[in-house]
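As described in the Methods, two query proteins were run sequentially through the folding procedure within a single session, without resetting any intermediate state between them. The first query and its resulting structure tokens are shown here.
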Amino acid sequence: MLSFVPLGVGDAFSARWYSTSFLLEAEGGRLLVDCPHPLRKMLTESDAGVDVDQLDGVLLTHLHADHCSGLEPLAFFFHFVLGRRLPVWAHPTVLGRLWERLAPGMDRLLAPDGGVRRLGFEDFFEAHPLRLDGAVEAAGFRVEARMTRHHVPTTALRVQADGVRWGYSADTDFDPGLIDWLAPADLIVHETNLGVHTPYERLASLPADLRARMRLVHFTDFFAPTDSAIEPLTQGRRYAIQRRSP
């Protein structure tokens, strides 16, 4: 069974919610979708029932801080506590700039003799590029990617396991082509926010059968969930995905 836990449902400015991210779980493994801070607290306060040592890696959509600020501490945990590298799946343009973002805090360690040890990306991470022209295997999941309309390179995701498919818009301006790409999924998680994000009103105008399979995340603190025509996700709750009828 493919299930997921929204570890956070808020945006970068939220005082109510953690930043939007997910734990995906199936018989084959456990993957994070994005990795904000404080990840271990987010896991502990949720229905996830796991700690970071049970994760198989991270699916990273883009490099805005509210989606990747937890990568440094998670990679340090893997390095120092678990003695292994953290697998990261992302589009090549995202992988290509990840170390540029992380290096100032990770590229040097003091040795016991007082010397300095220099480290690189490969000391902490296993890089696994996502593709735009096909699927890749990631810890038992089949992952497809599509670029979105956002400030920085960002990928939407379709993730399949155990015969069902989960779709995620990631951060994006409203994009009918992306909606069509996500439509085959059994459950679609779509962001809604201000600026170069998707207005709620555009999603609320979609056909009823599509809205019934859609859930909302990445909303502002003043978003009114009880008035929504599309169900907002509840932070920390586990959701099981049902295969939709043919």
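Immediately afterward, the second query was submitted; its sequence and tokens are:
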Amino acid sequence: MEPEMKIKQLWFDNNKVFILTEDGKELWQSLLWYHRLQSATDEQRSNYNISYSGIHWPDVDEDISFESFLYDSPEPSGISRLFLTHPELNVSAVARRMGIQQSLLAAYISGAKKPSPVRENEIKDTVRQIGRTLLKV
């Protein structure tokens, strides 16, 4: 099977992975979505395989689908960015503190679901409360 997208070039720069397709499109994804690839060495990053649906880095067991390069927002924002840039925030503990399912909060963080503006503020307020509690230590 031929890959859906033909990759002419792949490179990393400024915490992003870029691809240049054979039809001249330059696309990118933030490495914040891919922690194993973000912390990989140059050697590990240079060892990848292209398949029908995406790119696989066997040394770090990371995959990026071609489809994800076409998303409207390749850079995380809002609560996604908050949790991805602060891995010390425990998703399960924050969800418990809020009284919501961990899977729902995880879906908000991954972008699979979008929280309402009210819910997003509740999440941010909960994280701020945790921060205030920690400041008292």
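Residues 78-135 form one domain. We note this only descriptively and draw no conclusion about the first query from it.
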